[in-house]
Queue: 2 jobs
Job 1
Amino acid sequence: MNRKEILFFAAICLSCLLSAQLYPQNLAVSSIPENISKGANSVIRNYHKTISFPDDDKMTENVSLSLTILNEKSLEEAHLIIPFNKGEKVTVKKAEIYNAAGVRTKSIKDSDMIERSAVNNASLYNDNRVIYCRIIPISYPFTIVYEYEISYNRLYTFEFFSPYISDLQGVERSALTLDNSSGIPVKVSKLNLPEDAPVTIRGTSVTWDFSNLEPLVSEPYEPHFEDYVPTIIISPEVIQYNKYKGKCDTWANFGSWISQLSAGRTSLNSTTVARLQEMTSGASSDREKASLLYKYLQSRTHYINISLGIGGLQPHHATEVDELGYGDCKDLSNYMVAMLKAVGIESYYTLVKAGYGRYNFQPDQPGHQFNHAIVCIPQPHDTIWLECTNQTIPFGYLGDFTDNRPVLLIKNNTGILAHTPEYRMNENHSSSLIRIDYSDEGTAAACSFRYSGLLMDEPVTVASQNNADQLLWLNCELEINDFTVIDHKFEVSENTTHSVSLKANLALHSFFTGKNERLFASLNLNNQIGAPKRMRTRLRPLYLPVPYSGCDTLLINLPAGFIPEQLPESQLSSAQFGNYTMQTSLIDHPIQCIRRFEFFGGTFPATDYAAFYDFMQKVSVADAKQLVLIRQ
C-alpha cells in the first residue's frame, strides 16, 4: 500500500469514527424499519437494563435508553424521571437529545435536572425522591439518550422487566442483564417470551435480548399487560434491609420477615384497652364487636402516608397511631389488629396488591408482590375482610380495589397465601324503579336506585360527600336527558349484603319528543347498554373481568288522549356472554317496561370477540328501542 492509499484509508477510518460519534447507534429516524415505526408514537432504539448483585446486601441498577419520540402523543415518555429513596446513590452518566437526522442537539447538564421530594397530597413525609428533567422539543421527531445508575444499600426487590415501556411503541432492541457475582440465590420467572429470544451467558451474567418488536396496539377488553407482553421477573431469595435480615425462598419465610417488622408494635396502653373493652361489652358476637371497632377506627383516624427509612414497609407502633389518629395502610391495619386483640378477637395483618382490575401474581416466586395492607378476621362460617384506609365503606366490604386476588396472611410469625372474596354476577347488581308522571305543569320522575357488590364502589363514596358533590355526580351519572334534581337522598345498608340506595325526584324538560299526533319516549333511562368497538383482527384474548346483572323498571303515565302504537319487546341470549330481555306491558293506565341484563364475564379466546361484538351489538340495538305514542 503506497502513501496515498494509506492516507485515503486513514481518512475513511477517521470519517467513520467521527460519524460514529455524531450518529451513535445510527439514531437517524430514517433508519428505523417500517414495520416497527408504522402506527407507533415512539420507538425504542436501544434499551438495556442491568441488575447486579455485587454483594449479599447490595444491588445496582444500570439503565441505558435511546428512545425516539415520533409525535407529541408520546412526549411524556421523553422526560427524564428517576425515582429513588434517600440513602440511595443516583449517578446520571448521560442525558442527550438528537434531531431526526441523528445529530446531537443538546447535552443536558446537571443544572438542568431537578432533584426533589416525591411527596404527594396523601403523604405527610417520606423518603421518596425523584430526579426530573422536562424535555421541551424544538420539533418532531427527536431522540433522547439517557444513561444512569442507582446503587441500593439493601437487598429487597421484585424487579419486573419488559422490552416495552409503553403501548403504541416499536422496539429495535431491548435487553436485560442479570449479573450475580455475589452468588446469592435468585429466582427468575420468564413470561410470554418468544421461543427464539436470544439468551447469552457470560460468567456470572445472563442477558435476554429482544429485537424487531412491532408496536403494541391496545384492544378493548384485553387482559392485563403482563398476560401477553414478554416479561422477566427477578427477585433474590434473601432479604437485607437495614438491620432486618431474612429469606423469601418460601411464603412462610417471607411472612416471617414481614412479621419481624411489626414485632412489639401491636400493643396498646391499658387505658385504651379498657376503653375498647367497655365499648364492646354489650356486643353479642365477635362480628358485632369487630363492627363496633371498625366504625370507631373510621370515625377517629384518617389516611396519611408516612414512609421514612424502612417505614414504607414497617408499621408505626399501635399506641402512636392511637394517639395521633392517622397513618397509612400498614399503620391503620396494624392498629386494627391491635384493637381486635384487646377485645380477644384473633385477626391477621394481611398484604395485598391493591388496584382496579386483575393483575399477574406469581405464586411460585415469594417476595414483594404487594403494595397495600388490610385485615383478615377468621370466622367459623365466613371470613371478614377489612379495608382500614376508607372512612365511608361498610364493615366487611372490600370493593374492586382488593377483591378476588391473592393475599399473604401474617399469622404466628409466618406467611400463608389466601384469596380475597370474589363478587359474583348476582352480587354485582343494580336495579331501578322510575315512575314518569305527565301533566300540563310538566313531566316529573320519581326515581329509586339500588347498587350492590362492585357496582356500589362509586355510590358508597358519593353517599358521604356534601350535597353539591352529590348533585354533580347525579347530573353526570343519570342517563336521562335534560332534567333538574328536585331532591335526593342516599342510604348505605350495613347489613350482611351491602348496598347503597338512592331516591331522587326529578323535573324532566324533554321526556316526550315528536309532534302533536305522534310522540316518542326512551325506555332505557338507566344502565344504557352500548356496543364494543368492532375489530376485523383480534390478537389477544377477550377479558371480561366483572360479571354483573341489572333490572330496571320504568312506569309511564301517558299523556291524555295517547295510546302506544306497539309495546316493544326483545329477548336475546348467549351461552357465553349473557342474557337480555325487554318486556313492555299496559297495566291499567301506566305503561310498564322491565329491562333485565345478565353479563357473565370471563376470559375467552381472541376468536370469540366477533361473537361477543355481535351479541352486544344486538343488545344495544334492542335496548335503544323507543316507545311510540299515537293520538287516539
Job 2
Amino acid sequence: MKRRILLMGGLIMWTAAMASPKDGPTYYTPERIEAARQNLARYDWAKDLFERIQTGDALRYYIGPEYGPAATYAEQSDEFMWMLQPTTTIPRAMDHEARAICPVHGTKVRDINPWCPYNIDPVNHPYKIQCMLGGEWYPSNDYAAGDMTSGDFPDDGSGCVIDGRRYFFLREYAHMAYGSVVIPALRSLSQAYALTGDPRYGRKGAILLARLASEYPNHDDRQDRLFYALYNGRDPHYRWKTGGMITDLIWETFCLEGAVYAYDGLFSYMDQDPDMLAFLKEKGLPADSADDLRGYIEHYLVRAGMTGLLNGAIHGNEGHHQAAALACALVLDDYSDASPNSVEMVDYTFHGAGHAAHLLVNGLTRDGGGHESPSYNRIKLDLIRVDQAMASIRQHQPGLFPLDRYPDLFGEPKARSIFDWYVDVTLLDAYLPPIGDTGGIGELKRVDPRFYSLLMEQNVYAFGRYGDARLARAATSPDGTPFPGELFEPYPADGIAAALEQPESQIDRGSRLFDGYGMAILASGEDQQRRAALLNYTSLLGHRQNDHLTLGLYARGLDWLPDLGYPLSWDYRWQWDSNSLAHNTVTVDETQPRQDFGGFGRLFASEGGVHVIVADHDPYPMDRVEPARDGA
C-alpha cells in the first residue's frame, strides 16, 4: 500500500493511504507468550496474576490499579466499551479551589482525601462520582444516555453551579476514568487476549483502544483537548507544571506506556473481525481495513504520544518517560524516514531528555543510593523495562544501536549497586528509612518481618541478571515465599532455590554506613530483640524535606520515632509536613534550614557491641539564614 506523509507541527498527518510499518507483535511475541503460559502452568503467583487480569484491582485514584476486570468488560456491549473512555472535549484540569469539594459536605471531604475524595463505578454508575463521605452520586443527570439537565445537580461537562459555586463532577470523572479505568482495562484485555486468544477480549480491547485514539489530544488538530488547554498550557495553581495530554505530564508517562503495549497485544486481532471494523466506521473512524485501523491508532495515539515526549509535554520522574519512549520505539517498530520514529525514541531515551546512557552511573551515589528520597529513587527501576525493551529492539535491529553509544544499562557495575542499596537500607526487614518524601505515620502496631528489600519483584530480575545469592534471598519473603516475577518473562525458580542454599544468600543486618547517600544505621540484637537507630545526613536533590540530621529508632517490630513522611498536601508541605519542626531534629531560632549540600560523616564504628556514628550538616550557613520558603 502506498504511503503518503504530510508533516504538520512535527507530527505526521495520517491519511488513509498510510500503511503501518508494523507487521506483527514486537512486545507480546510468541516467545514471551509461551513463557507466560509456562509460568501459568507452574507457579501460583502467575495463576494469581491471571486472576487479577480477570477480576481487576480495586479502583483507586491513578496510582494503584494496574488491571481492570477483563471478564467483566468482555461481557459489555460494544457501545459501553466505546463510551468507557470519556470524550476529551470534557476538560480534566480545574482551578485548585474547585478540587475535592462536595455540594453537600463542602470541604469536609478533604479530611478523607485532599486530592480526590470520590469513588467511581463505570459499570454500574457510568459518568458519575460518589462522595466518600455521604455516599451520594453526582451529577444528577444521566450524561451517558444523553441527558444533560435533569435533577438538582446536572453537569453537561461544563460544571454545575450551586449557590454561585461551580462543581466539576464530569471533569473529575473524566480524569479518573482515564488513568484508573481505561488504561488498566486495556492492559487486562490485551494480556487476556494474548494469553487465551479469546476473541471477546480482543474485540472489546480493540474498540476501547480505537476510542482512546479518537480522543487522544495532540499538538496539531487536537490542541484544544490538551490537559491544560483551558489554562494556556500551565497549571493554574502549581505553576511549574506544564504539558500533559489526557492527564498531566507525569502521569501521562505510564498511561501512554500502558496504552502502547496494549496496542501490541491487540494488533493481531484487528484483521479478524470485520464486524468490529464496521462498528468503528459507524463511529466515524476511517477503518475500512485492519491496516487502516492500525495506521489510525499509530498516528493519533502512538506518534502523538511520541511527539509529546519529544516536546516535553510528557515527562515524569527518572524512569517514567524513558520507559514510555522505549515502549513506543519497540511497539511502533518504524525505522523509516517518517518522524517521529523508533530511532528518535531510542535517541531520546539514551541521549535526549531521557539521558539513560549515563543515568545509572552519574545518577547514583557510590553506595547505590539516588538523588531523591528512598521511595522516589525506586522509580529508576522502571529502567528495567527500558533495558528489556532495548534488548528486544536489538534482536529486531541488530547492529543499529552499538553498545558504545547505547550501553547495556544494568551492565554497569554501579547500576547493580541500586539493588544492593535497597537490601541494605531496609530496617528490621519491615521499614524503609523515612527520608524526604517517603512513608508516613501509620497505625501503631508491631510489624513482623515483611521483606528483605522494598524492591521485591525487581530482585527477581536482578537475580536473573547477576546470579547473586543475596539477591535471590531478596527475591523471597522472610517466610521463604518467592515473590512474583514478570508474567511474560522466564522465571528463575530453580536458580533461586539453589542460591538460597548458599551461605552467601544470608543478609547481614549489622550496623552499616551509606556515606555516599548520607545515612547510617546502627543495629544489634537478634530475632524479636532486633533494634536499629538511624541518622540522616543526606543532601538530596529531589523530594527532600528539612530533615537534616533526623533520628530514627526501631525495635521489636515498632517504629518508635515515626516521621510525617509523604506530604498530605503540597500546599502546606513547607509549613508542616516538610518543616524541620515536624521532624526528629533541631531547629535554630525558629528558622528553617537551607537546602544546601553539606552533610558528611566523621566517624563510624561497630565493634564489640558498641555502635557509633558521628556526622555533620551545615544547613545554617552564616551568610544565609533567612527562611527557606515563604510562610515556613
